[in-house]
Amino acid sequence: MLIIGELLNSTRSTVKRAIEEKNAVYLQGLAKKQVEAGAGWIDVNAGAFASNEVEILRWMIEAVRNVTDAPLSIDSPRAEAIEAGLSAAGAIPFLNSISAEKNRYRALIPLVKKYSCRVVALSIDDSGMTDDMSAVCGVADGLIKRLQDDGVPADHIFCDPLVRPVSISSSYAIGALSVIEKIRADHPGVHTICGLSNVSYGLPKRKLINQTFVAMAIARGMDAAIVDPLDRRLMAVIYAAEALAGVDSFCMNYITAEREGKLEGQG
Amino acid sequence: MLIIGELLNSTRSTVKRAIEEKNAVYLQGLAKKQVEAGAGWIDVNAGAFASNEVEILRWMIEAVRNVTDAPLSIDSPRAEAIEAGLSAAGAIPFLNSISAEKNRYRALIPLVKKYSCRVVALSIDDSGMTDDMSAVCGVADGLIKRLQDDGVPADHIFCDPLVRPVSISSSYAIGALSVIEKIRADHPGVHTICGLSNVSYGLPKRKLINQTFVAMAIARGMDAAIVDPLDRRLMAVIYAAEALAGVDSFCMNYITAEREGKLEGQG
Question: E strand or H helix at A192, and its extent?
Answer without folding.
Answer: strand A191-195
